[in-house]
Amino acid sequence: MSQSKQRMVITRHESLRLRDAILPVLIGASLIAGSVASNAYAQVTRLPGVIDRPVRDYVPDLTVEPKQRSKEASEPEIQLPADADEIVAKIDTIEFEGNDVLSSDYLGSVAAPYIGRELTKGDIARLKYDISKAYYDRGYVLVRVVTPPQSLDAGNLKVSIIEARIGDVSVDNTALNEGFASKLAGRLPVGEVFRESVVESRVSDITELSDVEASLTLKPGDEIGETDAVVTIREADETTQSVSIDNYGSELTGEIVARGDFQINNSLGRGEEIGIGVRASEEDLKSIYANLVMPTGFSNVKLELDALYSENEIGDVLEALNSSGESDRYGIALSKALTNTRAVKNTVRAGYERRKHESFLDDVKETEDNIRQAYLEFTSARRTGSRLVSYVSLKWLNGLGGSGADDIGEADASRATGDPEASIFRLNGYVGYYPAPRQTVSLSIFGQSTSDTLLSSDLFAIGGYGSVRGFPVAQEVGDDGYQASLQYSYLFGPSDGWQTRVGAFYDVGHVSSEIPGETIDDTLESAGLSVEVASPNRMTKMVFDWASPLGSYDGANIDDNTYYFRISQDF
């Protein structure tokens, strides 16, 4: 070990002992001694990567209505002739032709009730309906079933099935680069039997591009049994600039937080999204973040890049520490929608993240964590009828060594036994139920599980808006944890005017730590009321919440009543 490295280690060990010895004195000098209940609160929750996390949304974005509803093909109907009761013949066998998707054996099982008896014209109409319905239930919605002119003297009925294959595909495009638009439209399965879920997914992949909307028009093809498709792609004015102010921040870094989110979309004609955002508190929290979502042109795979830089100075009850911190994060990922319909959207994502978190005492570096993580994520959003929406995200992260990553046991680690190569499993779930048009009952769940001891920035935190309301931000942290919010709301006001949503909620969170004594109150509970006022176009929103803890707690800085607000304006 070099002398410089050795001196750093000695200084680090000394600083740990000195910090534990003088921390109560420093806090006492701030005239509010006793307002911090433990070193865990002072040493972990104030660190970068914990105290500077963005506020989490209770409702994930994927639960909103898609940009364009798909038009469901109408279910087959029985077309009974006027002389439906007229007997045609006794049928002993039924023969199928033109069927490739469904086997003759399977269709034979569908037709079995019609074999070995006299059939009326109404029975034949019902047989054709049953076969059409068998195709429809599997997504083959354009199939036609006919009984061609034939002699039934031998007791054999021939049934012809026209399975409607996709013929030519043309593009009517004014929004995207022509070559890119043709490549996207070329993903329609030409030559295959038209299946609604497959075609809808392909068109939805185009519609989901930024500032783009797409639709599909079908028309008869040149050949019998062919259906030609025209993909229409138009510009959509969806770019939104947003500013907001709220008091969701931490007392340690400033409760009043202003935020701006800005977009530049589809400037390259590929439906890409470029975003940049800034966040600043009335104290000394500042962050800037940027992201790029770029369709690759390979299938429906998207390249996702993001970066964040944040810095803060710790104030309030810990101001005497003269503590500050910085966070850097860079990420890259590839995502692909496996299914993309109004009813179901399944997405997989694989990515890599590079993070650095530094904390300082009196401008002298106290801790430094360098983390490299790879992750796999699966998300699924489902809409069941008009009353139920659900969403789940399953994410597995694993720390990587090398490339500048820390080793376990580094002298300047935020937690002495924290493992930079830890494996973490995270869950994000949401269920929204609409018992009536203006009522919503929702449950959101966030959780994390690991068998390792984590560094501070990977800890699960509870407390604050976006978690358990009524408690300070990151009131408790742990290696494992969960947070759940149950909410009910009712919407007042006309759909074309100002609307007010009034609701009640119950929040609960729990954490457990691999380090004994780090957690004071492992479970937090609260309840409260919320009000959201929105302008007719929902461009202006005002949200107000009141929350009160349930039960008694040993932790400090917990008030009986906490009031939250956010005012946002979109452009």
Task: Please explain how this structure is put together.
- A hairpin with a 2-residue loop joins β15 (344-361) and β16 (364-384).
- The chain contains six helices and 26 strands.
- The relative contact order is 0.11.
- Helix content is 13%, strand content 44%.
- The radius of gyration is 30 Å and the shape is elongated.
- It has helices spanning 3-29, 39-43, 104-111, 121-136, 178-185, 196-207; strands spanning 87-91, 93-97, 117-120, 144-146, 156-162, 165-173, 212-220, 226-235, 242-246, 257-265, 273-281, 285-295, 302-313, 323-340, 344-361, 364-384, 388-399, 423-433, 439-449, 460-462, 476-478, 480-492, 499-512, 523-534, 540-549, 562-570.
- It folds into three domains: 3-67 and 238-570, membrane protein fhac: a member of the omp85/tpsb transporter family (Porin); 87-162, membrane protein fhac (Ubiquitin-like (UB roll)), CATH 3.10.20; 165-235, Roll (Ubiquitin-like (UB roll)).
- Strands 9-10-11-12-13-14-15-16-17-18-19-22-23-24-25-26 form a 16-stranded antiparallel β-barrel. A three-stranded mixed sheet has the order 2-5-4, with helices on one face.
- The chain is mainly beta and 571 residues long.
Topology:
Elements: H1 3-29, H2 39-43, E1 87-91, E2 93-97, H3 104-111, E3 117-120, H4 121-136, E4 144-146, E5 156-162, E6 165-173, H5 178-185, H6 196-207, E7 212-220, E8 226-235, E9 242-246, E10 257-265, E11 273-281, E12 285-295, E13 302-313, E14 323-340, E15 344-361, E16 364-384, E17 388-399, E18 423-433, E19 439-449, E20 460-462, E21 476-478, E22 480-492, E23 499-512, E24 523-534, E25 540-549, E26 562-570
Parallel strand pairs: 2-5, 6-8
Antiparallel strand pairs: 1-3, 4-5, 7-8, 9-10, 9-26, 10-11, 11-12, 12-13, 13-14, 14-15, 15-16, 16-17, 17-18, 18-19, 19-22, 20-21, 22-23, 23-24, 24-25, 25-26
